[in-house]
Design brief:
This is Dienelactone hydrolase domain-containing protein. InterPro entries: AB_hydrolase_fold, Dienelactn_hydro. GO terms for molecular function: hydrolase activity. It comes from Fusarium oxysporum (strain Fo5176) (Fusarium vascular wilt). The chain is 36% helix and 22% strand. It has 504 residues and is an alpha/beta fold. The chain folds into 2 domains: 255 residues, Gcn5-related N-acetyltransferase (GNAT) (Aminopeptidase); 229 residues, Rossmann fold, CATH 3.40.50. Strands 1, 2, 3, 4, 5, 6, 7, 8 and 9 form a 9-stranded mixed sheet that branches. It has an 8-stranded mixed sheet with strand order 10-11-13-12-14-15-16-17, with helices on both faces. 43% of the residues are buried.
């Protein structure tokens, strides 16, 4: 049977009427199997925010009927990478489709949707009384506590500080999001919420832990998790682990996920996008086959290579230019929290002087050039897009003594020196906002005086009323910034089309 997959991400893909209709469908399916239906998460009948923090994956059969869904939650947890945790949430599958690929389709699409925004990985949690679910979670997620493999890996049966921090924050702040009984007791040594389901909003989820039909085929792991639970008490185990692309692809391949039609895992393994290594740098590759041998390297700004808008722009460049887009990590694996960068009042938390010292031109410049050389040797036509920090890197690649790209484009470049402007020797595009303390009026004027005399094609795109960072940030709450981001994207696309496709 062919299935149709729909992904509704963080309340942005549906209008109010469509949200209401979808919620009614999900409630109707869940009500067949969860009795009584709890008033939480996606099931809240009158909440206008039921989809706000959710990623909902819906599977329909060939006739459009609902076959199953998963409604996962993004939970804010301060003090960890990205300050966010993905929680597996609620899964419901119609009984007629439980022996079909629906479950694989649900979770592969959920996971790959999330990893598009967090390619280095994300902390992932699950809360369950169903023993087979506990076992399966440990098969796909790394560094899971509790799990049968944890003690062998860590040499202890106690959680790490990070595992414990996430669990404590969930216990302290997020019980309602996980439908945990207010009277449940949390055991910090085992991560069991004692009596979690033993209340009026949770009894529909209670299971018979002795029912082996609810166990995994892995009997030893099933017995391991059963030992945590009391019979008839409604206990649930909170599992905390880390979701990363490489591990999940291996696990899913073993489970036969790649044989499923419309599966994002198949697209990943078919080189839609993946994480590879080039010149000792981790690189996110977004493959596009329409123009073989054409590539664009994006050099990220302070937000780093995992920032969601960087990923979105990479998709646009790939689709609209028809080029493979590569986004290397030039911060050595270090990722600054995006929500901290976006909040000017919290910049002191970043210790930018120390961060910039670790990522100076002398440190990252050789890495950028080494990666560019490897890509230049691998592609017939090669362009570079640099944002902020990446601007000076793009200028180095396009310098007279290197000329490693066929063209470059930069948006609000940072730390650019006049000598780097003097040295340009390939077609260059500069996108400059009106207000930019990094690419100053002096540097703007200097660029417009010097570059036209260098004998190279030059495009200067000016954005009145906008400020530094607009082209990657696209803040809808700042007047004109989202529109400016779109204009900058379009300008870069036209530039790359001209110098990578039309002027070979």
């Amino acid at each position: 049977m062919d299935y149709n997959v729909q992904i509704h991400h963080l309340d942005v893909t549906l209008d109010p009427d469509a949200k209401h209709q979808l919620q009614n469908e999900l409630r109707a399916l869940a009500a067949l199997y969860i009795k009584p239906l709890p008033n939480y998460q996606i099931f809240k009948p009158t909440s206008s925010t039921s989809l706000k923090d959710k990623i909902v994956v819906v599977i329909r059969d060939g006739k459009g009927n609902l076959a199953g869904f998963v409604s996962a939650i993004l939970i804010p947890i301060n003090g960890i990478v990205e300050d966010i945790v993905l929680h597996s949430g609620i899964t419901v599958i119609h009984e007629n489709h439980r022996k079909s690929p629906v479950k694989k389709l649900l979770f592969s699409n959920l996971i790959m949707s999330v990893l598009r925004s967090y390619p280095r990985g994300i902390w992932f949690t699950s809360l369950a009384e169903v023993i087979s679910s506990l076992v399966h979670f440990g098969n796909y997620v790394t560094n899971v506590f509790p799990s049968p493999s944890y003690e062998a890996t860590h040499g202890t049966n106690l959680p790490t500080a990070v595992h414990l921090h996430i669990a404590k924050e969930i216990n302290r702040l997020h019980r309602p999001k996980l439908n945990i009984s207010p009277d449940a007791v949390f055991d910090e040594k085992t991560f069991v919420f004692l009596g979690s389901n033993d209340w009026d909003q949770g009894r529909g989820f209670m299971k018979d832990i002795d029912d082996t039909s609810l166990w995994s085929k892995d009997k030893e792991s099933s017995k391991f998790y059963k030992s945590f639970l009391r019979y008839g008490a409604g206990d649930e185990v909170l599992q905390v682990g880390y979701l990363d692309l490489k591990t999940i692809l291996v696990a899913m391949d073993k489970e036969g996920f790649n044989s499923d039609k419309n599966n994002l895992v198949s697209k990943i393994n078919d080189r839609d996008w993946r994480i590879i290594e080039i010149a000792e740098a981790d690189v996110l590759e977004r493959m596009e086959r329409s123009n073989e041998g054409v590539a664009i390297m994006m050099i990220h700004d302070l937000f780093g290579w995992t920032f969601s808008n960087t990923r979105i722009l990479a998709d646009y460049y790939a689709e609209e230019v028809g080029a493979t887009v590569l986004v290397p990590d030039f911060f050595g694996g270090e990722i600054l929290p995006a929500n901290t960068i976006l909040d000017d009042s919290r910049w002191a938390e970043l210790d930018l002087p120390a961060f910039l010292a670790r990522n100076s031109k002398s440190v990252r410049g050789p890495e950028i050039i080494k990666t560019a050389k490897a890509l230049r040797a691998s592609y017939r036509r090669f362009g570079v897009m640099g944002f902020c920090f990446g601007g000076w890197g793009a200028f180095h690649i396009g310098a007279k003594d290197k000329q490693l790209a066929d063209c470059i484009s930069v948006a609000h470049p940072t730390m650019v020196e006049k000598t780097e402007i003097d040295a340009l020797a390939v077609p260059v595009q500069i996108m400059a906002p009106e207000m930019d303390p990094m690419f100053t009026e002096e540097l703007k004027q200097y660029s417009n005086q010097v570059i036209p005399k260098l004998g190279i094609p030059y495009s200067y795109q000016y954005f009145p009323g906008l400020e530094h960072g607009f082209a990657i940030r696209g803040n809808p709450n700042k007047l004109g910034e989202r529109r400016g981001m779109e204009r900058a994207k379009n300008a870069a696309v036209y530039w790359f089309r001209e110098w990578l496709l039309e002027n070979e």
